Amino acid sequence: MITSSFNVVSITVFLAFFALVTVLGFFASRWKAGDLSHLHEWGLGGRQFGTIISWFLVGGDFYTAYTVIAVPALVYSVGAYGFFALPYTIIVYPLVFAVMPKLWKACHAANHITAADFVQGEYGGKWFAAAVALTGIVATMPYIALQLVGMQVVIKSLGVSGELPLIIAFLILAVYTYTSGLRAPAMIAFVKDIMIYIVVIAAVWVIPEKLGGYRSVFDAADNYFTLKGGTTGIVLKPEQYTAYASLALGSALAAFMYPHTMTGILSSRSETTVKQNAIFLPAYTLLLGLIALLGYMAIAAGIKVSASSDVVPTLFLKIFPPWFVGFAAAAIAISALVPAAIMSIGSANLFTRNLWRPLVNPNITHQQESANAKIASLVVKLGALVFIIFLPTQYAIDLQLLGGVWILQIFPAVVFTLFTSRLKLPALFAGWAAGLVVGTALAFAQGLKPIYNLNFGTVQYPVYIGLIAFTLNVVVTFVLSLALPASQRLRHSETDLRA
Q1: Is 15 exposed, middle or buried (0-12, 13-18, 19+ CB in 10 A)?
Q2: Which domains does the chain show, CATH number per domain?
Q3: Is 325 left (phi over 0), alpha (psi -120 to 50) or beta?
Q4: Percent of the chain with pLDDT over 70
Q5: CB of 466 closer than 8 Å to CB of 252
C-alpha cells in the first residue's frame, strides 16, 4: 500500500511537466497544419507522419502507463510468467512488417480511415463492418479506463487523494484532443518517450546499485518465490509453458487490431514508413524488459503492498529523491495521456464512419463527420472516467483481458482478406460470431481469467482463451467459405462507401 505524504518538490516537478504537455497538446493543432473539419485530418493527422513521428506515436500508444504499472506488478506477483509480454512484443513486429504495409496501401488507395472501412470496402454491406467497429470500440473502452488507473496510482503516490486530480487531467486531455485531434498525442509522444527512457535507465542503474547488484536482486526474488511456492518462480514451470506461449502468440495477433494501434499505422505517410517502424520499434521491447525487472527489484527492496499496482510507485518513493519521484510520476501520467487520446480518437473514427454514417446518417458531410467524431471522442473518455470513479478497478482489468479475446476475432476479416480472395462475407460473419460467443463464454466460466485448461486424456494444457476462440473463428470461416457458392469480391471506392 502506498503511504506517501504530500511533498511540495514532487508535486511541483509533476505539475511542471504536466503543464508542458498541456501546452504542447493545444499547440499541436498548428503543427503540420490541416483542415481539422475533415476526419482524415483530425483522426489520422492528415496521413503525413514520417518514420520518426510514427515511431514515437505507435510506441506511445502501444507501450502505455498501464504497461509501466502492470508488467512489474505481474512479475512481482507471479515471477517469470509475467515476462510473457517480452516474446509477445518480439513476435508482433515481424507480423506488422508482413501485414501492415499491405493494409496501409489498400486503405490509402480507397481513403479508408478505419479497419472496418477496409472490411466494408472489400465485402460491401454495412452490418459486418458495423460489427467489426463495435468490437473495436467495446474492446478499447476498458483499455482507456486502465490508462486512467495508471494515472490514478501515480497521483496517489504523490500524496494527493480523491478523484478531483483525475477529473482535471481528464478535462485537459478531452479539450486538447477535441481541438488538435491525432496531432496532439503525436507531439506529446516525443516528450513522453524521452521521459520514460530516462526513468527506466535511471531505475535499472540506480536501484540495483542500492540493493547490492543484480545478483542480489535475482537471489532475493528466487528466495521469495521459493518460499511462496506454487507455480511462481524466476524460471517458468513446465505446467506454465503452453499458457505462456499461447498468451504471447494470441496477444501478438491481437495487438494491432485495436483501434489505437491501427490508427497509428494508418496515419503513417507511406508503406515504407510502416516497414521502417516495424524494424525500429523492437527498441521498445528492450525497454519493456527493463521495466519488467522492476518487479524483482521491488521484492529485493522489501516492498510490501496491498495492491500490486502500487509496486512501482512505492519502489520509487523508497529509492529516489522527491524531485525524481515527481519526474517519474509525470512520465507515467503522460504515458497515460498519449494512448488514452489515441484510443478515444480511434474509437471515435469507428463510431462515426462505421456506425453513425451507415446506420443513422448516410448523407453526412465531411464537416459533420469530423464534428461527430470529436463529440464521440469526448463521450468515450467520459465513459472511461465514470467507469474508474464508480466501479471497482478490478472490473476494468478483467474486461480488458476479455477485450483481448474480442478484438482477436476481427483478425481474419482484416488480415486474411489481404492475402486471399476466397473468403466470403457470411463465413466471416459466422466465424466472428462463433469466436466471440465461445471466447466470452469460456472467459466467464473461468471468472474472466484469460486461461482455459484443455484436457487431452489425463493431461491438461492451459491455453489462452483468445487463441482458442480465434482458432474456432478461423475454422468456421474457411469451412463455410469453401462450402458457400463462389462470389465476386466487392471493392468499393470512397464514393461507393458514402452512398
Answers
A1: middle
A2: 8-391 (1.20.1730.10)
A3: alpha
A4: 93
A5: no
Kindly tell me if the per-residue pLDDT of 27 is higher than 80. Answer: no
C-alpha pair distances (Å), 464 with each of 361, 442, 457: 40, 10, 19
- Contact between residue 453 and residue 462 where contact means Cβ atoms under 8 Å apart: yes
Q: Give 96-101's long-range contacts (Cβ < 8 A, gap of 24+).
A: 96/256, 96/265, 96/274, 96/277, 96/278, 96/281, 97/275, 97/278, 97/279, 99/256, 99/415, 99/418, 100/256, 100/265, 100/274, 100/278, 101/271, 101/272, 101/274, 101/275
Does residue 204 surpass a pLDDT of 50?
A: yes
- DSSP for residue 391: S
Per-residue pLDDT of 233-270, as tens digits, reads 888 888 889 999 999 999 999 989 999 999 999 999 99
In sequence order, the 6+-apart residues with CB closer than 8 A to the CB of 38 are: 366, 367, 369, 370
pLDDT at residue 137 in the model:
93
Residue 335: phi and psi, rounded to 5, are -70, -15
Supply 241's cell numbers. 509453458
User: Which parts of 28-163 fold into alpha helices (H)?
Assistant: 39-44, 51-62, 65-78, 85-110, 115-123, 127-157
What is the rounded distance in angstroms from the CA atom of residue 117 to the CA atom of residue 152?
A: 35
Q: Coil, strand, or helix at residue 125? A: coil
Q: How far apart, in whole angstroms, are the C-alpha atoms of residue 482 and residue 486?
A: 8
